[in-house]
TrEMBL record:
PANTHER family: GLYCOSYLTRANSFERASE, POLY-BETA-1,6-N-ACETYL-D-GLUCOSAMINE SYNTHASE. Residues 11-136 form the Glycosyltransferase 2-like domain. It holds the Pfam family Glycos_transf_2. Belongs to the glycosyltransferase 2 family. WaaE/KdtX subfamily. This is Glycosyltransferase 2-like domain-containing protein. InterPro entries: Glyco_trans_2-like (IPR001173), Nucleotide-diphossugar_trans (IPR029044).
């Protein structure tokens, strides 16, 4: 009787759209990061409707590496792409890499061993944000991690400290994602789903130093805000109280405050303005002001918005 092949420890989802200037470096960085574990890792490589040389570069990489499974789709929608990629994964854990980012050498190799040994539901790592002006050359150091409670993980996420609403650079047990779907958004799809992942995960470990190089480029999808993207951001923010419930209401309120503070001139729909303002009006002033978890700067923003009647 033939023995069933063991599932790979790690499935690495790589999504690309018109990334010909970056995708070679992205794929090379993954190879170097996986090191000796590369051949036993699974790479799910997706080109979504590229019109440049992204397809050719990805196709060649898949031809050169037996553990790379390459798909070309025409969704023009990152939410659909992520769902499609998840349906193809067979690894015990899933991580995601965008086609214009990179990961540090040997990091995935060490992390694969950590996942096998510690067997967490969720391994969270801090992203390394790389700006055009960044001079420091980052290297992968000693792998330090600690267990954190679900409450601590949710709090870190909500105050936007160490944990952001991105699946890139995070490692999720595949079973956690099995009955979940990303919304079919062109952006903020991860912000919508991330709260559900945090709530569903029992054993969570966290590293302050992560493997992921998140390049913050001018003209990126997340930097070009328009009314459609604001609508998606509002929908993603509305998901937070549905998932996190009453306990975190003041920290969730901070997201509504930031949304109106940063984007009030970008909200064109009166219905959406009413939605945002209604969430702000539901904030209990006393509870919010005296909550030690809420930053002073956020309290000042709220008072300023309140005095202007949220206009």
């Amino acid at each position: 009787m033939m023995r069933e092949a063991k599932a790979p420890v790690l499935s690495i989802i790589v999504t690309a759209h018109n990334s010909e200037d970056y995708i070679k470096k992205t794929l090379l960085s993954i190879s170097r990061s996986a090191g000796s574990s590369f051949d036993s890792s699974e790479i799910i490589l997706i080109d979504d409707a590229s019109t440049d040389r992204t397809y050719e570069i990805c196709h060649q990489f898949s031809q050169d590496n037996l553990n790379v499974v390459f798909y070309r789709v025409n969704f023009n929608n990152i939410g659909k792409v992520r769902n499609y990629a998840l349906s193809k994964c067979t690894g015990q854990y899933i991580t995601m890499v965008d086609g214009d980012d990179e990961v540090l050498p040997f990091a995935f190799e060490e992390i694969s061993g950590l996942l096998e040994k510690e067997n967490p539901d969720l391994y969270l790592t801090k992203l390394n944000e790389i700006y055009p002006s960044s001079q420091e050359k980052l290297q992968w150091g000693k792998l330090n991690f600690r267990a954190i409670s679900g409450d601590r993980a949710i709090t870190k996420f909500l105050i936007h400290k160490d944990i952001q609403a991105h699946f890139i650079g995070q490692f999720v047990r595949r079973e956690i994602l099995a009955d979940m779907q990303f919304p079919e958004f062109e952006c903020y799809e991860d912000a919508y789903l991330f709260p559900s992942i945090l709530v569903k995960s029992s054993k969570i470990i966290f590293s302050h130093h992560g493997p992921y190089l998140y390049f913050k480029r001018d003209g990126s999808l997340s930097n070009n805000i328009n009314k459609e993207k604001i609508s998606l951001l509002i929908k993603a923010t509305e998901q937070m109280p549905l998932v996190f419930k009453e306990k975190y209401k003041n920290l969730i309120a901070c997201h509504w405050i930031n949304l109106l503070h940063k984007h009030k001139n970008d909200i064109y729909s009166e219905k959406e303005k009413t939605t945002v303002i209604s969430h702000l009006k539901n904030i209990s002033l006393i509870s919010f002001i005296f909550d030690p978890k809420v930053r002073l700067s956020m309290k000042k923003k709220y008072i300023k918005l309140r005095r202007s009647n949220f206009r």
